[in-house]
């Protein structure tokens, strides 16, 4: 069965402030061929991302949530041009990232950077801080060593490290300090768009708030736009203005964070939120416990991808993909419960 176009219409061109999106994802699918060949039999396809569309506006923090393996990093890496999509595309500042020439692509890529999840493995242990943070400027070229050092010192202060750290190596730093180094490196080329893929999950809980506060401070001071990937729904509620909930490569629900937390419509979102919002006494909701594990993205269900674990699944959910419905302005849900008869 062919995938139906299962996305918000995204007719909205400008946001409330009249801004055009900085990044637009349109009907993006990423499939990875696996297996096959002489010994391993039939070729299979991992449908990591299926027909996702979203718009991220300048200066906002856009949240991406969903269980492990639902395709968040694959989507983010494709948005940064690190993976070529199977279908669909990404527009950055209105230009098709995968439709431009190599030189323009390289220039566009400089405006989009990433903070890695694990600051222990993402920093080269043989390099000192000056080399790590300054490397993107060195690769870009056109800067003297003095200019690079001056810029690195400026960034060290900005991320809360000191001039004395310039010639230290990653092993001399704690996890939180390493993440600050990673952030300084990510912003040295003055990107407009920063992907934060689980930026604190590898760190000690005691430094989570410091790193998140630093990201918020930088956003205010430099005016960056973030895609923020997280398992922590309490953090997403606090810092993200809009969000998408993914399940097995598909968008389940998207819209303003406030609307989704106040009125989650998809049973999957309800289940995710019911586990974290118990402390919110004014907003007590029925608790939904999800049974089973996320199924394999090889041969995902032909109907709704969530149907096998959905506590409210109906017969048709097994066979028919739900269309995306706008349940309130800007709030989209892909669920048969929101779109039609309950059969
Ligand atoms: N290069 C690849 N080749 C084959 N399968 C891949 C590849 N990259 C990712 N996948 C698969 O695609 C699916 C989505 O992976 P992805 O890393 O995007 O998930 P995620 O939502 O970021 O998970 P997590 O929360 O654990 O980081 C997974 O089933 C993963 O195994
Ligand atoms: Mg990931």
Name its key features:
343 residues; binds adenosine-5'-triphosphate; Rossmann fold; alpha/beta; 8-stranded mixed beta sheet; binds magnesium ion; 31% helix; disordered N terminus
Question: What would your notes on this structure say?
Answer:
31% of the residues lie in helices and 23% in strands. With 343 residues, the chain is α/β, with parallel strands linked by helices. The protein has a domain at 23-111 and 189-339: 3-Layer(aba) Sandwich (Rossmann fold). It has an 8-stranded mixed beta sheet, sandwiched between helices. Strand 9 (242-247) and strand 10 (250-256) form a beta hairpin. It is globular. The chain starts with 22 loop residues before the first strand and ends with a helix. Mean pLDDT is 89; it is low at 1-12. The structure holds adenosine-5'-triphosphate and magnesium ion (MG). The site of adenosine-5'-triphosphate (ATP) has 13 residues, from strand 1, strand 2 and helix 2.
Q: Ends: how far apart?
A: 21 Å
Instruction: State the shape.
Output: globular
* Order of neighbouring strands in the sheet with most strands: 6-7-8-3-9-10-12-11
Radius of gyration: 21 Å
